[in-house]
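Appendix C reproduces, verbatim, an entry submitted by the partner laboratory led by Prof. M.T., so that reviewers can inspect both the input and the predicted structure.
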Amino acid sequence: MKSFKKVVLGLVAAMAVVSAQADVSTLQANLKKNYPATKVTSVDVTPIKGIYEVVLGKNLTYTDETGEYFLFGDIIRMKDQSNLSSQKRDELKKIDFNSLPFKDAITYKRGDGSRKLAVFSDPQCPFCKRLETELMKLDNVTIYVFTNPLVGLHPEARNLSKKIWCSKDKQKAWRDYLISSIEPTSDGLCVNPVDSNIQLSRELGFDGTPMTILEDGTVVAGAVSVGELDYKLDKVAIAKANKK
């Protein structure tokens, strides 16, 4: 009798999966028909019956199988207050760290350099200056600084970034200015990546500075403390080691 019940339950579960897959296929067809110019990255089920998760590029939304109406927001599981949307949204924001053009970055290495992060930073941004002070306290780290002047807020930051890059010792010139407000002495007329870094920042969807990218692709916005950075870097390093 128990074996029969297990078989029945198994069949019910299998039918539910087949039904959900059919609904997903229907939704995919409706989205393709109704929005042919829209890039649909993925469609999946949610814990809410009849509601499906749709990823449009890097945007997360929800809809039913008709795809006529969309919900933008979070799904919260009330019994434990878990945000079921935040993890997915964080995954969508991740960036391929190894695809970054590191030759266009000002690079620092401390200790064994095993932990890695990249920072998009504006030399005249007060929050970037605060973050730079925290970055100096890190050990066993490689830091790639991509100059990203926000010319709309800081009109002089673009030329200043070029002067820093063209300095004989760009690493020293960068920190001299951000930490001690010492102006770079170069003319800024050398070949430099400042404009391409600005374009890259736009392509990555950054609308402010500083923006820090960890090796696992996680993006951390703002001037975070050295303690928080240490914790996040160690977490990434442990996850990386566990994959080996």
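The CA atoms of residues 152 and 158 lie 10 Å apart. Additional entries are available on request from the coordinating office.
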